[in-house]
Amino acid sequence: MNDIKCECGHVNPYGTILCEKCGRLLDETQKDSKLIDMRYEGGARRSQTYNKTIVDKIWNFFSSVKIGIWLIVLVLAASAIGTILPQEMYIPKTMTAAEYYEETYGWFGKLYYLLGFHNLYSSWWYLALIAFLGMSLTIASIDRIVPLYRSLTKQKVERHEGFMKRQRIFGVSETDQTDTQDLKQRLEKQRYKVREENGSLLAEKGRFARWGPYVNHLGLILFLLGGMLRFVPGMYVDEILWIREGETKAIPGTDGKYFLKNDEFILEVYDKDDKDFSEAIERTGTVAKNYQSNVTLYEKDGETLPGEEVNLKKIKDAQIKVNIPLKHDHYALYQMDYKKDELNTMSFDLINKKTEESFGSMTVDLNDPKPKYDLKEGYSVELESYFPDFEFDDKGTPITKSKIPDNPAFVFTMYTPDKPKGETSFVAIKQTLEPLGENTYKLAFAGIETRNAAGLAVRKDMTLWLLFIGGGIFMIGVIQGSYWNHRRIWIQRRNGQMWLAGHTNKNWHGLKRDIEQVIKGTDIEEPVDQAQDEPSSKKGEVLNG
Amino acid sequence: MAELSSNLLYAAFFLYLVATVLFGGAIKQKKDKWKRSKVNGHFLPSG
Amino acid sequence: MEKKQSKWALLAIWVTTIGFIAQIGYFITRWIASGHAPVSNLFEFTTFFGMMLVGAFIGIYYMYKTPVLGVFTLPVAILIIAYASMFPREISPLIPALQSDWLHIHVTTAAIGQSILAVSFAAGLIYLIKSVDQSKRSAKTFWLEAIMFFLICTVGFVLVSSGFKAMDYKAEFTWVDKSGQTAEMEYTMPALVGPHESKLETPDAFKPFFDLPPILSGRKANTVIWSLGAGIVLYGIYRLIFRKRAGALLQPLVKNVNLDLMDEISYRAVMIGFPVFTLGALIFAMIWAQIAWSRFWGWDPKEVWALVTWLFYAAFLHLRLSKGWQGEKSAWLAVIGFGIILFNLIVVNLVIKGLHSYA
C-alpha cells in the first residue's frame, strides 16, 4: 500500500479521498462530481484499505454501515414478529405451550409455536442478531473514528480550489476590499473559533458534535455488555416468594441468609361513592387502590447445622407496595401478586349420623396437617391421605393439582369405641363418600378460616450500574450529536476575489443564518446553496411554503 | 373543575380549527408580499 | 433576527398559541380535579399527544416560519384529539401500578418525543404532496393516496362514533370467549359482525351478519369495519365531486414550497425528537419498569414496540447519514415512522394485549 503525496506536500495514507491538510481531491474518479462527499472528511478507513486475511474480511463486513442497517432492520422485524402472539412467559400456565398455542390460535398458533416464536427473544438466532449488532457498532465506530480524528485535527486553513468549489454552500464575490479582520470579529461574535493563515479564514464551531455518534455507540456497547453480565453467576437473582400471613420463610436466592415474615397483607379498593371517580368505577367495576404487604425482615444469626432451628435477628419492619419495593443488601422485594382468602384451616365435628351427637371437634391445618387427631376419650381420627387441590383423574382416582389448598379433600379413618377397626370416609368440600361401605359416624364440616398470601418477587441485579452508565453515555452522545452541529466557513482571497464556502453536518438552515449575519453589510455576496435541486424556486418563495 | 377542564379542551380544539384555516389563508397570499423576506431564499441561485 | 410574516400567518400562530394555552389549561385543571397527571388512560394520553404535537409545531414554526407546516400539522393534531375523545372520558382512579411519579415523567417524555417525530411526518407529507408526480398513476401516487385515505377513515371513525353516541345506541351480547367462558359485550355501534357464538340480548338491535372467531374482539373489529366503511363512503363522495386524487387536490396548496426546506424540517424534527423519544420511551421506561415490575425490560409488547420505533428511527438516521437517503426517500421514511407511532397508539394499545393496555 502506497501513501499518497499531495501537491501541498502532505503525505496521506492509502485510500484518502481528500488531502488531510489542504483538501485537494486525491481520488481522480470523483473529479466530475459537483459536490464532494464530506463523510469522515474524505479520510482513509481501515476497512477500505485492507482486504487480505480473514480478520480483514470480518472487519470489513462489520464495519459496513449497510450491514449495520440490515442488522437493525432484521432485529426490528424479528422483535415485531414476537408481539403477534403473546410470548410463552405471558400465557396461562394451565396447559403446555404447544397445546395452548394450537388450541387458542389454530394453525397459525401451531406454526408460531413450531417456529419457536413463542420464545423468540431468548432464541439463539435473536441473540446472535443482537451480538452481530454489537460487533457492528464496535467495529464500524473504530473504523471511522481514527480517520475522522486525523482529518479534523490536521485541517489547514487554506483549502484547495476544488475543495472550496465543491462545498454545498459556495460563493465568489468580485471584491478585494473586504477587511478580513472585521469578518473574523463578526465570526467570533457568532461564537466561531477562527483560525487565520495568509489572510484566509477558517471558522469552525460545534466540532465536538462530530464525536456524538461515537459516544452514543460506546454507550450502547456498554449497555449490551451490561446485558451480558447478567449471565455471570451471582450477578442476578430472580425468584418468587409466596408467603402467607403469619408465615416466616427463608428468602429464596439469598442462600438462607435472610428470612421474611408476612405480618399482614392489605388490599384496598377505591370507594365507589368517591365523587371524582364514581363514574369510572361504575363503568369498569372495582378498582384496586393499594396492594401492600407488611413484613418483617430477619437475618440468620450465627451458623446452624442443617435441620437445626435457626436463630433470627430482626433487621426491620417494612411495608412493600407496588412501586415501593423493600431494599436491603442489594436485594429487593417487590409486591407482585397476592391471593386473597386462601384456605388456612378447616374444622370438623365427629358425629353419629343418626343421633347427630358430637364426639369432639378437630381443626386441620391445611398447610401442615397432622397424621392423627385425638378427640374425646376413645375417639380419634387418622388422616390417611390429603389432597390440597383435589380432582379426579381420568381413571377416577383422586389426585392433587398443586400443593395449594384451593380445594382440599381428605381420606379419614374414624376410630370410635363401637368401631375399633375404624370407618373410612372420603371428605371433600360439599361431598362425603364412604368407599368401604355404610358408616355409622361422619365428620361434619364445622367451618373454615382463611388468610391472605402475598406473592413477592425477589431480585438482585448487580448489572444495573453498567446498564445505567451505558444508557447515560448513550444519551449524552445522542444529544451531543443531535443538538449541536459542526459548522465550518472558509473565506479566502483568490485573484482579487473573495471566496466563501460553508459546510455543516446538518441543519443547513442554521449555517445559512450564521453566514447571513457575518456578511451583512460587507462587500461579500450571498453564497449559493449548490444542493438546491430546483433552480426554479426563486427568492422569497421559501417563506410562502 | 372537571367541567372547566373539558370546556378548555373544546376551546383548544376549536382554536386549532380556526388556526388551520388562517394558515391556509397565509399560504394563499400573493407572493409579492414576501419578496423582501430575509429567510433562506438568499442562498438560492438568482436565475 | 427580524423576520417578516404575513398578517395571516401572524394571526394564525397567535390563535394556535392561544389554543395551546387553553389546552394546557385543560391539562392543569384536569390534573387538579383527578389528583394525578392526566396521562393515565387512552383518552388522556392521546389528547396529550395531540397537545404536544401542537407544541412541537409551535416550536418548529418559530425556527422556520413556514405556514404550510401548520396547514398539515394542525389537522393531524385535531384528528388525534378527536380520536382520543371517542374513548371514555371520565376521570379514572389510578391502579397501584400507576401510582408513581414515573407515570408523569415516562409517559409525558415519551409522548413529547413522539409528537416531535410526528412533525417530521407532516413535513415529509408536504414534501411528498409536492414531489410526487400526479400526472400519471404510479406506486407513489397509490401510497400517497393510501395515507390520505387513512386520514379520511379517522374522520369516518370520529363521525360514526359520535353519531351513534349521540343516538345513545347500545346492543348487549352474550358470547363465548377463547377459554370457553360465557361473557358479555356491549356494542355502541350497530353490529355488522358479532363476537364468537354471539347471542343478541337487546331487543330491536341490529343483528350481526356473522360471528368472528374467539380471538378477535367483536366490538373492536366492528368499529374498524364501520370506520373503513365510513372512510370509503366519504372518500367516494369526494372523488365523485372532485374527480382527482386527494394528493392532486392538495398539490396547488404546496406549489410554493421549497422542497429542500421541508426535507430539512423533517430531518431536524427527527434529530430533535429522537433523543427525547429515547429518553422517555426507553430509558425512563426502563427505570420505572425496574421499580414497578422488578425488571427493567420484560419483552412486553409495548416495550418491544418502543424498541421497534427506536430501531426504525435509528435506521432512518443511518440511511440518511451514510447512504444519502435524503429528499423523497427520507420523506417516505418519515411517513412510515409516524405509521409505526400510530401503530403503537392504536393497535398495540387496543389489540395486542400486554401489561400496558389501558384501554
From TrEMBL, chain A:
GO cellular component: a single term: membrane
Pfam families: ResB
Domain ResB-like: 65-516
TM helices/strands, residue ranges: 67-85, 124-146, 214-232, 464-484
Main location: membrane
Spans annotated as Disordered: 525-545
Gene Ontology biological-process entries: cytochrome complex assembly
Alphabetic keyword roster: Cytochrome c-type biogenesis, Membrane, Transmembrane, Transmembrane helix
InterPro entries: Cyt_c_bgen_Ccs1/CcsB/ResB, ResB-like_domain
UniProt membrane topology term: Multi-pass membrane protein
Chain intervals with Basic and acidic residues compositional bias: 535-545
Subcellular location: Membrane
Entry protein name: Cytochrome c biogenesis protein ResB
Protein species of origin: Peribacillus psychrosaccharolyticus (Bacillus psychrosaccharolyticus)
